[in-house]
Structures are given as C-alpha cells and as structure tokens.
Amino acid sequence: MRQIEIYDTTLRDGAQAEDISFSVEDKLRITEKLDELGVHYIEGGWPGSNPKDIEYFKKVRKLSLKNSKIVAFGSTHRPRHRVDEDTTIKALLDSKAKIITIVGKTWDFHVKEALRISLDENLDIIHNSVAYLKKHVEKVFFDAEHFFDGYKGNPEFAMKCLLAAQEAGADCLVLCDTNGGTLPHDVEKIIKDVIDKLKTQNSKLKTQIGIHAHNDSECAVANSVIAVELGVSHVQGTINGLGERCGNANLCSVIPNLQVKRGMFCITDEQLRRLRDVSRFVNEIANLRHFKRQPFIGDSAFAHKAGIHVSAIRKRPETYEHIRPELVGNSQRVLISDLAGKSNILRKAEEFGIHLNPDSPQIQDIVTTLKNLENEGFQFEGAEASFELLMKKSLGLHKRFFDLIGFRVIVEKRKEGENPISEATIMVRVGGHVEHTAATGNGPVNAIDNALRKALDRFYPQLKEVKLHDYKVRVLAAGRGTAAKVRVLVESGDEEKRWGTVGVSENIIEASYQALVDSIEYKLLKEEV
Predict the structure, then answer these.
(1) 413 to each of 87, 410, 417, 439, how far by Cα in Å?
(2) What superfamily would CATH give domain 403-528?
(3) Rounded to an integer, what distance in angstroms lies between the CA atom of residue 190 and that of residue 209?
(4) Residue 208 pairs with which residues in a beta bridge?
C-alpha cells in the first residue's frame, strides 16, 4: 500500500480566503484538530509577514502534537540581497520550525515581468535559498510557483528550476498550479514529462514530488488525484478547500478519494472517521456555514429523497451510495418531500422509533397528507420535527399539551429614528387552566415566542432549555406581492440536540406561530418518551 504524505495549508493558504480571519488561538485550536486527523505536515503561516504568525510559531512549540510536524512558509531570498542577510530567510529560521517550505518562481513570464531579473539569476536565487536553509533545518520543501503555466511556456526553464532546487538539497519538489487553470489532461501530460526527464537527467529520481493545486477551474481535487496516480507522493491542500480566490484542493475529498477509492494510505481508518468533524470544526472557527452538498462529509452527501432510491438503499445501500458514509464520519439520511413514497415513510418511522406495519393503509394516508401539504408550500426536508409530529398525529400517537384560545401582536413606532416596539398578548388553555399573558420582543415573532413561553412556563419548566438558533422566511408565490404565502423554517435546540419545524401561511406571524408551536410540542413530546 502506497504511503501518501498529506500537507495541510489551511492556516496559511486557507487563511488567505475572502471572509477568513483566524486569530492566533483559532490557529492553535485548528492545529490540534489537524494533528488528531493525522495529517503529516501543518503549514502554520508565513513568519515575518505579520505579528500574528510570529506569535503562532512561538506558541505552537508548546503544543504536544502526536502526528503532525509544523512547517513555516516563505519565499526565496529577494533579488540583489545576500541569502544570509535576507529578512524573509531570517524570519523563517527565527520561527524555529524544523521544516520550511519556500516558494520560488518557475514561470519565465513572472521572472521577467514581476522580478525583472534574468533567468539565470532566478536559478541562483532558488539554489542559494534552498542550500542555505538546508544547512539549518531538517527538511526544505520547494514550492514551484506557477509550474504548470511555466512548463507550458518554457519547459526547459521550468525544469531547470526544479533541478536547481534538487541539486541544492530540496526534500520535495512541489508542482504548483498557482492560477488553478490547468485541466486534468494537461496535468497528466506535464507530470509524466517531468518525472521522465528527472529520471533521465539524474539516472534515478532523487527527490520526492508533490502537488499543490488551486481550484479556479473546479479541477483541484481531480488534478491532485491524477498526480498521485502518476507517482506523486506528497499532496498539499486545505480543509473544506479554503484558499485564495476559488480555493485550494479540498483535503476532505482528496483523502477519501485516495484512501477509500484507490487503496492508498494517507491516515488511519480511525482518523478518517474524524474527517466530517474536523471539517465542521474548521467552518465553525472560521464562522462559515457548512456546505450541505460538499462531497463525502456534507449533510446532503448521503441524503436520499426519491422513493425509488430509498427503496433500494433499504435493501442495499451501495445501490445509491458510492462509499459507506461511516468511513468518513458521515451518516445516511432519508429526506421527506412530495417525492417520497412508502419506503421513505417506513425509513423515517424507524428513525423516529415508531412501529409501522409495511402493509398498513396508514402509510398511504401519510404519503397523501405529506404531498398535499408540500403542494401548499410546506417543506419537511429541513423540518423533520414537524414531520415526526405529522406522523404521530396521523397514527393517533400525538398528545396535545395546550390549546390556543387566541393571540394578538402589536407593532408600534412612536418616534422617527427609533426602533419599533413589538408586544404580543396570548391566551392558552392547559388542561383546565387558562393562562393569559403578554411579552415584548425585538420583533413581532420574537414577541409572540416570548409570550407563548411565558404562558407555558409554570406548566412546562423544561421549555427554558429550548433556544431558537435560526429563523428563515421564504416567499413562495412570486408575483403576488405582499399577498404571497410565506414559509417559515425554525431551528430550535436544547443541550442534547437541534430540530427543525415549519409553518406556512399568507400571514408571516401565523406561519411563525405554527413553526414555534411545533418546536415546543416536539420538545415536550421528546421529554415524555
């Protein structure tokens, strides 16, 4: 089984993505998670480029990492500067990192137009930088910047750059698709040429080859996998594909593709099962929404909606799943919608702990009710708590905890420039008791939520544990203006789990009330189980 080195650059290349700003503490916490995942190298940043990265390299030395080695990133020394006096090189050594990656120009266009030096001078800069650093640290990796574009324009010079780094003692020559525009067939052709030429010119390939792909043409993962197939053994990328412009090769796809699909060894099976958790951890730290449709580890990656799909996976999951979701820490999900059939209902009944005879006529009643409600605008994919309540009502398993007598919501704006004031009054019956109360809120929906909770508080104190995490409104019928129906999706949760509920009406307050009531009833029903 081939061993593939995984090199993570989330903390450097990933941090260059739009909307991303990691604090030092963020970077340290992500470092520990990446170490748990088992990546071989963690590129911590560019020491000397900013105070944050300088502090990171001081603090990361105090972590007790078990699997990963920390790498400092920088560039070759500047033109017209001695390598031993260059501030970038000094900062790299001052980081105390035992492994250093330096990026150097390999595209003659960049050498002439950006650096404005001769091609021979650039070769000297690469050789001198690698050789000098190699005297002071354990390993030096050379990132051949814009290599694929450079090879297309001037293959002889691009190869000379690799040979200069190799002769200076580089431990890995990393071929970079810096602009992210190279397509897989070009990657394949160029890597084959490079490996053949290195073998020819050196009798044997002395230096490890790596790949660093950007995703500007949506090919970063494919290019990385193809490179490994051709003999590359060092893969650079980021968690969730974070990175400059369109991002980097997504390690959350690269690793399972190589390990599960191609039988190569990247990390242990136990570590692979942490992949989804690490992905979500990084997104949480970065304050990004989780991408539902992300391959392998997204919520929708193993979600099934069509009835014929669900029927098949209940017999054999591989009929519609390319791998077992548990391998990457994910799980199979069955969605409920107007495309649902008998198999969807049976599967959801199993999840909800409801015994349902496969031959029961109640199944078709539930399917019919579901499709009618979805036709009215309800959506249960993100509101499974509402669907569980619907099923239990259809089967006579639902319990009413309270009855609404009525509510009123007032929104008052007293003065220009001041925020409106929202107040809700509600009357409910709990058993033989009638509770009439009022509450204010920062909006009409918040006010009615507060009033409802206040009315039920003394009867059901466990509702204090419920928090509203998300609230979404969607207008369903375009062209009807303010008379259009709206769908409200509410995500609530307690200390144990989160759940989604839904409401639909022409009146946004009524739709919100429906979703809020379902949320409360779900909590109370769950507590009774």
Answers:
(1) 61, 10, 9, 17
(2) Alpha-isopropylmalate synthase LeuA, regulatory domain (3.30.160.270)
(3) 13
(4) 172
Q: Where are the domains of the chain?
A: 5-267, 403-528
Distance CA 497, CA 332 (A): 18
Q: Does residue 218 sit in helix, strand or coil?
A: coil
Least confident of 118-132, 338-352, 415-429: 338-352
Query: The tokens of 164 are what?
Result: 């200069």
**Closest listed residue to residue 520, CA positions, set 473, 450, 472, 437:** 450
pTM of this prediction exceeds 0.90: no
Please, which residues bridge with residue 142 across strands?
A: 102, 173
Task: Report CA dihedral (133, 136, 141, 142) to the nearest 10 degrees.
Answer: 10
- In 3-state terms, what secondary structure has residue 44? strand
Residue closest to 235 by CA, chosen among 7, 1, 3: 7
Cβ–Cβ under 8 Å, residues 130 and 142: yes
Fill in the DSSP letter of residue 260.
Answer: I
Torsion of CA 197, 203, 207, 210, to 10 degrees: 30
b/e 481-517 (16+ beta carbons within 10 angstroms → b): eeeebbbbbbbbbbeeeebbbbbbbeebbebbbbbbb
Beta bridge partners of 69: 41
How far apart (Å, rounded) are the C-alpha atoms in residues 386 and 492?
12
Note the Cα 358 to chain centre separation in Å.
38
The DSSP symbol for 281 reads H
Mean pLDDT score, 284-313: 88
Closest listed residue to residue 126, CA positions, set 150, 102, 147: 102
- Cα–Cα distance list, 15 to 197, 233, 272 (Å): 35, 25, 23
Residue 60 parent element (H or E)? none
Q: Read off the DSSP letter of residue 258.
A: I
CA–CA separation, 252 and 328 (whole Å): 9
By C-alpha distance, which of 467, 460, 465 is closest to 492?
467
Q: For residues 186 and 211, is the Cβ–Cβ distance under 8 A?
A: no
CATH 3.90.226.10 for domain 5-267, yes or no, is no
Q: What pLDDT digit, counting tens, does each position of 324-345 carry?
A: 999 999 988 877 665 667 777 8
- Give the percent of the chain with pLDDT over 90: 69
Residue owning tokens 């639909």: 504
Which residue is associated with the tokens 């509450």?
A: 439
- 238 near 292, Cβ under 8 Å? no
**pLDDT tens digits along 363-373:** 888 888 888 88
What does the pLDDT read at residue 204? 60
